[in-house]
Amino acid sequence: MALAIRDVREHDLDAVLALNNAAGRTILALDAAQLRYFYEHADYFRVAEIDGHLAGFLIAMREGSNYESPNYCWFSTHYPQFVYIDRIVIANAYRRHGLGRIFYCDVNSYAEVRVPLLTCEVFLEPRDDVVVLFHGTYGFQEVGQQRMGESGPQVSLLAKDLPSYAYVRETYLDHGGLPDVPWLAERPRPFNDDSPQRRLAGERHS
C-alpha cells in the first residue's frame, strides 16, 4: 500500500467535495463555492492518497483569515495566534487504520513552527466518544463550549499547546524567518494572499 500526504490540487476538488458530503452528521456539508474558498484561502489543505485513490483530507486555517465559521471566530476572539483544524474526513474504506493520526501528526508539524496553539472542535451532539478520546490522547484540552447558531449542535472547543514554537520563534522567526526548504514552505495558492501573517512571513524572508 502506497500512502502519500500532499497538498490538494485543483483536480482533486470534485472528489474532496463528494467525500466531505458523504461523511455524515459530524461533518458540515459543503457546496462547490465553499470548497473553492478553502482551496484559495486555507493555510493547510492536504489530501491522503492511497494507491492512487483519495483516502481523506484535512483543512486548517491560521488566524487572520476572513472566515465566518462560528468556531473559528470563537478562537479568533480568544487567541492571537493559532492554527484551526476546520475539518478532517477519512473515507469509509480507510477508517480505523491510523490515517487520522497521520494527518494530525502532519498538521501538528505544520503548526508548531508557526504558532503556539493548535485548535479544533468536536461535536457533543451527537457525541462520538471515539473522537473525544482521540483528541484527549493527542494532547487537546477543552477551553470552552458553544452552540453553533440558535438550533445548531453543542460543540467542545479544544486547544493543544505547541511547546516547540517558543524555540522556533526565538531561533528563527525573530531572526529572519524559517529556513528555505520545501517541507517548511507554505502551500501554493491560486491568488495573492495578503493576510497579515503572510505579509509578516514575507518580510521575515526578505
From TrEMBL:
Region (Disordered) residue ranges read 183-206
Give a Pfam family name. Answer: Acetyltransf_1
PROSITE patterns the UniProt entry points to: GNAT
Residue ranges with Basic and acidic residues bias: 186-206
Q: Where is the N-acetyltransferase domain?
A: 3-163
> What InterPro entries does the record point to?
Acyl_CoA_acyltransferase, GNAT_dom
> Which protein, by its recorded name, is this?
GNAT family N-acetyltransferase
Q: Which organism is it from?
A: Dyella koreensis
